[in-house]
Design a protein that fits this description.
The structure is a single chain. This protein is an alpha+beta fold and 185 residues long. It has a single domain, classed as Allene oxide cyclase-like (AOC barrel-like, Beta Barrel). The protein contains four helices and nine strands; from the N terminus they run H-H-H-E-H-E-E-E-E-E-E-E-E. Strands 2-3-4-5-6-7-8-9 form an eight-stranded antiparallel barrel. The longest helix has 13 residues. 32% of the residues are buried.
């Protein structure tokens, strides 16, 4: 199918795209994985000024925050074609450094052009209090990570059953992320 798609491009565009993506092919899976590290769970604090930034000061909302440390990743394809996939797993920690379960996710590249990569990710955070799931679509420049990132909370189990809301993730290092979870139940 990619052969059919490339025949529809203007002459030379595919060559420019391949040259621009050459650096992206050599990037660690963590570059692509970074947007997927968006799930978080663990009670940390209640209320936050950041909630007001999103125009939503609801007293029924809990604000949760954890550090995610990626420990493993995989990918099929090099991330330069629609349909390529990547995944990741790791541990999550409370602010005091106490372990608080694990997380994992999988992303699919939806579109790639000579400047941007668009992918959709599904991530599950497994905590002692239950699981919580998120998903989102992100477009970022080839070879760059775009943070902060927001995603939708799509549900959960245990203490997180019927969860909704959104997450905001900031990158601390290539394999470490802080995610704040604006959780409604």
């Amino acid at each position: 199918m990619s052969g059919e798609r490339s025949s529809l491009r203007p002459l030379g565009l595919r060559d420019r795209r391949e040259n621009r993506l050459e650096g992206a092919k050599d990037m660690k899976a963590g570059r692509y994985v970074s947007v997927g590290l968006l799930a978080i769970a663990g009670i940390f604090a209640a209320g936050s000024p950041a909630a007001a930034d999103h125009g939503d000061e609801d007293s029924s909302k809990k604000v949760l925050r954890l550090k995610h440390v990626q420990e493993d990743s995989w990918r099929s394809g090099d991330g330069s074609e629609a349909g390529d996939r990547f995944g990741f797993t790791g541990s999550q920690y409370k602010k005091d450094g106490e372990p608080f379960g694990t997380y994992g996710g999988e992303c699919t590249v939806l579109a790639v052009d000579d400047e941007d990569i668009t992918h959709q990710c599904f991530v599950t955070s497994n905590t002692p209090r239950g699981q919580i799931t998120i998903q989102g679509i992100h477009t970022e420049p080839v070879g760059e990570d775009a943070f902060p990132q927001d995603d939708a909370i799509t549900g959960g189990t245990g203490a997180f059953a019927h969860a909704s809301g959104f997450t905001r993730t900031d990158q601390v290092s290539p394999t470490t992320y802080i995610t704040t979870y604006y959780l409604r139940r």
